[in-house]
Write a structure and sequence with these properties.
This protein has five helices and no strands. By secondary structure, the protein is mainly α.
Length: 198
């Protein structure tokens, strides 16, 4: 009976370890792809935001640095911070675009300006179009970064569960070792052998 109990415990432990290895490999493959997507989105944001600084102040490059850090180090808190400030910057971009859009289309295109002012106006229009593209990229990035954040959270729970089950596996191994030594001691004990002969 003890041998069958030890055998069943070892089967449970081995089955759990196989499942953990398989899940870990699948998670790693998904993480790499999502890391690339988020990194590309952050790079696009950074370049467009640097172009925008030709005619407006933009905090997006600083946010991108936080985003790069969170992807590189896989930090949950940094990713959450980046997401919060990304949503704030999206709101600020919408406000800026609505104000500048009405200014461009109702004033700049209806009045006559000197050559120097015309160049500045064209630059403003170019930055306005880049800001529209940047807003779309930010919205798509928010989806990708949120998925990345959820994946980090699941990875955290998976790691803590794994360490919890790891301690159970250690307890099972020590119990099986104790039981096998008990079985050997019982079979080698001459008193128990004499009892069995009687």
């Amino acid at each position: 009976m003890l041998r069958s109990l030890v055998g069943s415990e070892m089967c449970i432990r081995d089955r759990y370890q196989r499942r953990v290895r398989g899940k870990g490999l699948g998670c790693m493959m998904g993480e790499r792809n999502l890391d690339k997507v988020v990194s590309i989105a952050l790079s696009a944001q950074f370049v467009l935001a640097m172009i925008n600084t030709l005619h407006r102040s933009d905090i997006t490059p600083v946010l991108c640095l936080i985003g790069f850090y969170s992807v590189k180090e896989r930090k949950q808190n940094a990713t959450r911070t980046y997401l919060i400030f990304l949503f704030v910057s999206i709101v600020l971009d919408v406000i800026w675009l609505s104000a500048q859009g009405s200014y461009i289309y109702s004033y700049l295109r209806t009045h006559q300006f000197a050559d120097g002012q015309l160049r500045d106006n064209h630059l403003l229009e170019f930055v306005f179009m880049c800001s529209v593209v940047l807003l779309v990229v930010k919205m798509l990035s928010a989806i990708a970064v949120y998925k990345f954040y959820v994946e980090l959270e699941e990875g955290f729970h998976f790691t803590s569960t794994r360490s919890g089950f790891g301690s159970i596996g250690t307890d099972l191994e020590s119990a099986s070792t104790e039981q096998s030594s008990l079985i050997q001691a019982t079979s080698n004990n001459p008193t128990s052998a004499g009892y069995q002969n009687e």
